[in-house]
């Protein structure tokens, strides 16, 4: 078992490991228990009833949060010609094609998100092993391989979140900062949960959203009562 500091233990004091809460209650507790000197990020973890080893049960997508993520996002766009000016005008910090690929090969990855136009994906594929493990590889399914680079850049700047279920069937996503307050965080959470719900694979059997947990960067996780997840989606 990992050892936790005094502040974490105080935040988790009285928290039963088996305790389950309504979504609103869990969110309130996350905000109340945040203790770090910095503005902690709030995350959601959803255990899905899917088996990701089957391609038709892979859950992957993206959505724009109504209140953003509360942080500056540096965007790189792999494109050529007039699309480069379009990307810069939309706010992209880094724009290029062969030159940008060369920089990434040298280890220069000074960006948080990446977009690519379809015509340069063969180039970007050369650095897939670098971008992939960092979650930076552009993908058509998440809208980051597109000729509409202006819209893609603006969405990322505004707080676009991409998510993908892991091998254990768990999906993790950030939903904002503690300083947002519970109400705005709830709005962001609902957007993500509704999006994930719409992406339910037709081949998935049984309960889809089996469990959910909310936590801040340094704080304990608060588990949501599975029976109340559906109520939250439909409410």
From TrEMBL:
Keyword Endoplasmic reticulum: no
Domain of life: Bacteria
Protein task: Protein L1 is also a translational repressor protein, it controls the translation of the L11 operon by binding to its mRNA. Binds directly to 23S rRNA. The L1 stalk is quite mobile in the ribosome, and is involved in E site tRNA release.
An annotated GO BP: regulation of translation
Assembly and interaction partners: Part of the 50S ribosomal subunit.
Protein name from the UniProt record: Large ribosomal subunit protein uL1
CDD domains assigned to the protein according to its UniProt record, in alphabetical order: Ribosomal_L1
GO-annotated cellular components: cytosolic large ribosomal subunit
Pfam families given in the database record: Ribosomal_L1 (PF00687)
Origin organism lineage: Bacteria, Pseudomonadati, Thermodesulfobacteriota, Desulfovibrionia, Desulfovibrionales
Similarity remark: Belongs to the universal ribosomal protein uL1 family.
Molecular function (Gene Ontology), one example: structural constituent of ribosome
Assigned keywords, A-Z: Repressor, Ribonucleoprotein, Ribosomal protein, RNA-binding, rRNA-binding, Translation regulation, tRNA-binding
Xref: InterPro entries: Ribosom_uL1_bac-type (IPR005878), Ribosomal_uL1 (IPR002143), Ribosomal_uL1-like (IPR023674), Ribosomal_uL1/biogenesis (IPR028364), Ribosomal_uL1_3-a/b-sand (IPR016095), Ribosomal_uL1_CS (IPR023673)
């Amino acid at each position: 078992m990992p050892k936790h500091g005094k502040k974490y233990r105080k935040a988790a004091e009285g928290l039963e490991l088996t305790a389950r809460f309504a979504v609103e209650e869990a969110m309130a507790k996350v905000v109340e228990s945040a203790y770090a000197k910095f503005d902690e990020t709030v995350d959601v973890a959803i255990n899905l009833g899917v088996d990701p080893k089957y391609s038709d049960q892979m859950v992957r997508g993206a959505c724009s949060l109504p209140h953003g993520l509360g942080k500056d996002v540096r965007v790189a766009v792999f494109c050529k010609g007039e699309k480069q000016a379009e990307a810069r005008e939309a706010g992209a910090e880094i724009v290029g094609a062969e030159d940008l690929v060369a920089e990434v090969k040298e280890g220069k990855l000074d960006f948080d998100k990446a977009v690519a136009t379809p015509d340069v994906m063969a180039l970007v594929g050369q650095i897939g092993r670098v971008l992939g493990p960092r979650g930076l590889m552009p993908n058509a399914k998440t809208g980051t391989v597109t000729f509409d680079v202006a819209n893609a850049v603006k969405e990322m700047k505004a707080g676009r979140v991409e998510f993908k279920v892991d091998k254990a069937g768990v999906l993790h996503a950030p939903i904002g900062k503690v300083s947002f307050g519970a109400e705005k965080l709830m709005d962001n959470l609902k957007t993500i949960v509704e999006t994930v719900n719409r992406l339910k694979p037709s081949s998935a059997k049984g309960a889809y959203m089996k469990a959910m947990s909310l936590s801040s960067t340094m704080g304990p996780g608060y588990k949501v009562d599975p029976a109340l997840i559906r109520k939250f989606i439909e409410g």
